[in-house]
Amino acid sequence: MVRGSRSLLPLKETVSLITRSFPKPGRTECVPVTGSVGRVACRPVFSLLTLPGTNIATRDGIAVRSGDTSGASARHPVAVPGAVRVNTGNDVPAGYDAVVMIEDVRQDTTSGAWIADQPAAPWQYVRRCGEEIRKGDLILPAGHRVGRYDIGALTTYGIAEITVDAARIGLIPTGSEVVPLGTLPGPGQVIESNVAVASVWLTEAGATPVRYPIVPDDPDRIKRAIETGVRENDLVLISAGSSAGTRDYTASALTDLGEVLVHGIAIKPGRTALVGKVSEKPVIGLPGNPAAALAVLRELVLPLLASWGFRGPAVRIVRARLTRPLASEPDCDEFVLVTVTRSGDHYVAHPERRGAGMQMAAVRANGYLHIPAAVEELSSGDEVDVRLTKPEEDIQRSLSARAVAPPAFGSTLTEAGGQTE
To answer: MoaB/Mog domain spans which residues (predicted)?
Structure first.
């Protein structure tokens, strides 16, 4: 289903189409526990150890059989037979079920017997064997996303490696004018950045990016690169070549190798993106424009990965008021970079200039807003949700760049779980 410029598939429908068309690939890999944060356990994880391995004293004192202290009181102190001196962390000998703190007993200077003047409750000041966990007990269920606070438990219970869901994403940069990072571009050349950016975002989501060499604008070489990418990965992203220029060959290559499901999406920036299927695997063409490529990556590729169980860091959302009106193209979801400033609990959003090649706009901005397809214009003063692209504390620092006093109005701060849209 190829869409022309006048028949762009809505973003929501595109996301629904690809998530329905491409199920989770089912790939797994074994990774060190220390490198598993953000990954999803594909099977239950069970403890290899029993902890504590024996009964442990939790106070300095004497280990006793609680029954031997029965009836002890200040008026009728009891000499405790067979009491054993222990310190915090020592094993409590077999047959003993309580510890009396050293401050609560005295030792007869003549006989050496320990004297208690109050009874000890069973298991008093004893951490029992297996109290925390036993060998074979469940630590994490299948489908659990490993968090930072899980690492201590996993390593303590003897887990060095964990099997997690995996996805390999092939990244193919194209363009005869594109040169690799580290190369000084000549006239008409640009340094490849889209694949570099995508690699970082995909890694944060828990996927494994596989970067391929730059492919010049040659239809046969592009076709061979796609064949290799599909054979070796679960998803392929092709940077540039998705438009309708004389050197844009991605769509024709996909038609030869498989099929084009969507060519043209109602998203701005990013409308020239395309989605294809080759050997039942998704191939997504990113526009060459960096801002457009990022929008497609964030709003289309990451939702597909999320449907497979791969999600990046949670996104913070602030409610802010626009400082100037924004017109939007009808029937097109638009994403606009903004700089949010703050005064007390109040936020305002200053839209960045829109246009091609606006790499510095992403550096200056600290968030972006979504103008839904049904909305043609936002007015100055309208309250909008801004998804932050930088830490919230950076908002205060942005005041030095934009000394604009916000109007008084209420604001809220919420958190969106996982990636947006």
So the answer is: 170-307
Overall number of domains in the chain = 4
Nearest to 306 by CA among 22, 9, 33, 13: 22
Single out the residue of 275, 277, 310 nearest to residue 418, CA to CA.
Answer: 310
Please tell me what DSSP assigns to residue 363. Answer: H
Q: Are residues 175 and 259 in the same domain?
A: yes
Is 160 in the same domain as 180?
no
299 and 355 housed in the same domain? no
Pick the closest to residue 301 from 179, 194, 187 (CA basis).
194
Amino acid at 414: T
DSSP per residue over 122-160, as a string? TTTTEE-TTSSB-TT-EEE-TTPBP-TTHHHHHHHTT--
Q: What is the CATH number of the domain that holds 159?
A: 3.90.105.10
Which residues on neighbouring strands pair with residue 337, listed in sequence order? 368
Verify that 40 and 121 share a domain, yes or no.
no
What whole-number distance in Å separates Cα of residue 144 and Cα of residue 371?
34
Residue 380, domain member (yes or no)? yes
Placement of tokens 């009491």 in the chain: 83
Question: Residue 111 is part of which domain span?
Answer: 56-127
pLDDT at 415 over 90: no
Q: Are residues 155 and 190 in the same domain?
A: no
Nearest to 351 by CA among 330, 367, 329: 367
Closest CA to 283 of 326, 236, 321, 343: 236
- 130, 227, 253, 281, 285 from 257: Cα distances, Å: 58, 8, 6, 11, 14
- 94-106 pLDDT, tens digit each: 999 999 999 999 9
Q: Angle 416-419-421 (CA atoms, 0-180°, nearest 5)?
A: 85
Task: Report the alpha-carbon distance of residue 256 to residue 242 in Å, rounded.
Answer: 15
Q: Which of 257, 236, 259 is nearest to 167 (CA)?
A: 236
Residue 410: per-residue pLDDT: 41
Residue 69 lies in a domain: yes
∠ CA 121-126-128, nearest 5°, is 115
Task: Give the three-state DSSP class for 309.
Answer: coil
The 10s digit of each residue's pLDDT in 202-213 is 999 999 999 999
CATH number of the domain at 368, please: 2.40.340.10
98-149 pLDDT, tens digit each: 999 999 999 988 888 999 999 999 999 999 999 999 999 999 999 999 999 9
85/106 same-domain check? yes
35 pLDDT above the threshold of 70: yes
Residues 350-386: pLDDT tens digits? 998 876 556 788 888 999 999 999 998 999 999 999 9
